[in-house]
Fold:
Amino acid sequence: MVNNRSQLQRNYDEQGYFVIRNYFNDAEISSLRKVVLKFHQLWKKDNAKFYQEEAFNSSLITGSQYLAFDDRVKLFNFISSKKIVDVVESVISAKPAFMNTQLFFNPVNPQQKDFWHRDCQYDHDVDVQKKVIHDTQVVHLRVPLFDELGMELVPGTHKRWDNDEEFAVRQEKKGKVSSDSLSTGKKIKLAAGDLLVFSADMIHRGLYGLDRLALDILVFDSAANFADYVDDDCLPDISMLDKIADPSLFINTLHLKSMG
Structure:
């Protein structure tokens, strides 16, 4: 599994991300891809207008709307597999909890551009963002299902505020737009089988192109309690828990929600 947990933790602490190449084998990716594509086809049909006009991601992949019981159990078992949990625990040592899944794909409109952001900017104004990046811990684990251009990240921004260039681009100030390039950006190409782990609050953008279809698993530190953000339907129900090899990620979330 993960050979050097302390090294991963050090990379994450310093840079805000790390990549493990060829972490999943062909069989694991193929099995995951089959379930995710089932979701994706049904979601696209149901959201045809949104998909055609502007969509670049969907969420709640583990929910009951598009996937049957057995497929959901397969997903839950992948998310809570030893390979995933080992990596999660290298970043969040105490009671990591499952938040959500997202699926990232190319927008239909070729004119649509990828854009720089911090996830927290959609919930908080600038003053709160400055505080949040030091307080909270939401982690993305990206599993590309096909080879793709990957992500562009600004290393270290999970712990520091934007410089002038980054702020102008991300917030679209001083004639800049959020798709402009950043001198501090670092491109990370990804292949099927790789795993990219990164902080939700660092400055980042997904890169459109190739056959982009990437499953993101979002987890959080129980101490930061994001349970209110978790949709009940994307959690396993009681009858599924005994079919999941290690349900602790989900149980931690269910526990937080029951306390809420």
